[in-house]
Amino acid sequence: MSSDVSTRPTAPQPWPFGKPGTGMFRNDRSRLENEVNLRSCGLLHPRAAEFHTETLQGLDPVEIMTYPVYRETYALVAEHLGVDPGSLVLTAGSDPALDLIVRSFPLARIVIHTPNFGGWAKFAHIGKQTIDHVAPDPDSGGFRLADLLTALRKGPRAIVVVTQPHSYTGQVHDAQELTDLARGVGEHGSLLVLDTAYLAFTHGGEELVRGVAGQPHVLRVNGFSKGYGLSGARIAAVVGHPRTVNRVFDLDPEAAVSGIAMALLRAALRHDEYFQAIRDEIRHLRERFARLVESAVPGWRARESGGNFVAFDVPDPAQARAATSRLLRHGFITRDMSGLPSLPAAVRIAVADEPSALRVVDILGDWSSGR
Ligand SMILES: Cc1ncc(COP(=O)(O)O)c(C=O)c1O
User: Fold this and answer.
1) Which of 25, 39, 90, 95 for mutating ligand 1's site (highest number of atoms within 8 Å of CB)?
2) Counting atoms of ligand 1 from 1, which one is nearest the CA of 98?
3) What domains can be seen in the chain, in order of their start residue?
4) Which end of the chain is more exposed for a tag (fewer CB within 10 A), N or C?
C-alpha cells in the first residue's frame, strides 16, 4: 500500500539562519469595495485615470517582453526638471530611494522634523540608524528649518531631511530658509535630503528648491506618484550632483524600475500641460474645500497647504476619530493625525476632484449637525 509522504507529520526542523524574521513590513491590505483613498494623497483625478488608461492601451509590448532601457526616460526627466541626465537616478518610487540613500551614505544619524513620512523610520530601523526627531515650534505649531540645524550641531554627521511641502501639514519653506539650511548642513559635513513628493502642487514650488538642489551635499528625491497619478507604477528620480548620485548608482538602483512604469511616466511628461491643468484645478479646489469644511464643521481650522491635501486642526481627538470613521463608512479613507507632535487633534484629507471633495464636505456637514 502506498502512503502519502506529504501528509505525514514531520518533526519541527531547526531553523539554520539565526534569529527568525518578523515579517514586519509585509503589506496584506486589500482594497475596500468602492474605496476612495484620500489618506495616501495620490492623484486620483478622473482625467489622470483616462490618460493612463489610454497610455496602457497603446503600450508597445516590447516594454513588457524585453528588459527595460533607460536613456529616453532620463532625457525626458532631465528636461522636465531642468537638470543634466548625469545628475539623475531613476528609482522604483521615492520610498526605495530613501533606502538607497541611507545605504549609500552610511551616516549613523538622521535628523528630521517629526511627524514625517514613515519611510525614514522604516529604513532607519532596517539600517539601525538613530533618528533625532525635531518637533514643530510649540508656539506656532509650524516647523522651522533652523531647529534642524540646532539639532544637527549637537551631534555627529547626519542625514538631514526636509519634506517640502511637509507631508502631514502641507507647510512650505521659503527659498532663503532652505539656502540657510543647506549652508549649515554643508559646513557640518552632513547630507541634506529634500523630499519633494508634493512639490508639484505648490505654486512656484520649483523656484523654491532650485538654489539648493545640485549642490554636492544635497539630494532631492522627486516622486511622480502624487503629481502624475503614478503611485502604483512605482517611479521616482533622485536628483543631485553627479558625484553624489554615483554613490547611489553603486547599489544598482535601476534594477527595480520597470519598463511599464517608465513608459507611463514618459507619456505623462510629454503631456505635462495636461497634468499641470489637473494640478492647477486641485490647487484651487484645495482652497475652496478648506473653506467649505471650515464652515460645515464648527471649530475645524485648515492649515495652509502646498500639497494636494488639507490638514485640519479640530477641537478634540474624539471629533477626529468620529469624523474619520463616518467618512470611512462612506468609503473615504482619511488620516486621523491626532496625538502626533503639535497635532493634538487633527485630520488630513486629500483633494482628489470636485465631486469627491464636495461629497466629503456633505458627509462632514451631516455628521457635524447630528444627521
Ligand atoms: C513625503 C513622502 N515621501 C515619499 C513618499 C513615497 O512616495 P513614492 O510613491 O514615490 O514611493 C510619500 C508617500 O506617501 C510621501 O508622503
Assistant:
1) 95
2) 4
3) 37-45+273-368 (3.90.1150.10), 46-270 (3.40.640.10)
4) N
- Write b or e for each residue in 287-313: b if 16 or more Cβ atoms lie within 10 A of its Cβ, otherwise e: eebbebbeebbeebebbebbbbbbbbb
| pTM exceeds 0.90, yes or no | yes
Query: Strands 301-302, 309-313: parallel, antiparallel or unpaired by DSSP?
Result: antiparallel
Q: Which atom of ligand 1 is nearest to the CA of 40?
A: 14
Give 174-186 pLDDT, tens digit per residue: 999 999 999 999 9
Q: Find the mean pLDDT for residues 276-282.
A: 98
Amino acid residing at 178: L
DSSP 124-135: HHHTT-EEEEEP
Dist CA 166 CA 242 (whole Å): 27
209's enclosing H/E stretch is: helix 205-210
SS3 9: coil
